Fold Dienelactone hydrolase domain-containing protein.
Amino acid sequence: MADEEVATKAPESDATEAQNVSGIPGDTKPDQGAESMGEHCTSDRPTPGGETPTGEITKFHDIEVYITKPADYPHSPCKLLLLLTGGTGIHSTNNQLQADKYATEGFLVVMPDQFAGDPAPSATTTATQGQADEQPSLIEQVKLGVAGIAKSFTIDMWLARHTPEKVLPLLNNVIASVKEEFADAVANGGGIYAVGYCFGAKYALMLGSDLHKDVAAGQRDPATEAEEGMAKQGPQIKCGAIAHATGVSKEDMANCQVPTCVVAVEDDPLFPDHVRNAGLEAMKTKGLDHQFKVYTDVPHGFAVMGSYEDQSIMTKQTEAYDQMLAWLKAH
């Protein structure tokens, strides 16, 4: 993927930017850029008080999935939604609550473990509200910057284990099971809907693309040249919505063939303007139905359910969810 403009940043830049802390409490831009995934992609925010997940974890093709259903299913029809998470994975309480929220709106939600039991480092670390919102001193910022270099290598190693060659076959196996297990919901919606947050956003885009069959099967890096005459697999979803993507290239966006809603964060080093704008221009040029909004004064990862002391972030979290939900319902 060397020739693609991907939303990543070199780890060695972390130390030199240790003092450039974001104005959003708990949201350090150096950590985000250095790791190719932000702190909000690998660690949960405090869980909203009093809320408990209502779904269950089962397995499709030996792949763990969290499934949550509308209260009146199967007596009333619903639509099938594939929810692709950030690095915290399906055992994150916040991700489960996010899935449950879509279920209350009439979607049967399947949230697969994209990481085969290997969530991102620090995924189990949940800061307390006070710790998350406390601004570090200058010395602490420098120390965090140095520590961030070591952490970035850990993240890089994790990302190297979770490439399209590994993730796409897993997702295609889950989709095959979903089409059989919940054929009624798939048929009722005229296909499968998908939402993707952070890491999962890239794969929501890829599932909405025409992929060569060897790529879909995990037999070839999508950035390499296909053999002449290689057949393609059409989009596996009918509509998608993504929020604060990571690891996405302009080609990922340009190749998408299904209606797509894009939620982005202002000045996000993980989904920088030049990548995002080039991808959106490609969507516009080919006439793809799409929607796009940039949210200001929020951290990367803000759209995933979780508590913030700043009520303006909480308000925008709700706005982003409402935007994505409305997009899905309109299609």
Notes: Strands lie at 56-60, 63-68, 79-84, 107-112, 192-197, 211-212, 232-233, 239-243, 260-265, 290-295. The CA atoms of residues 40 and 118 lie 17 Å apart. The chain has one domain: 35-123+137-330.
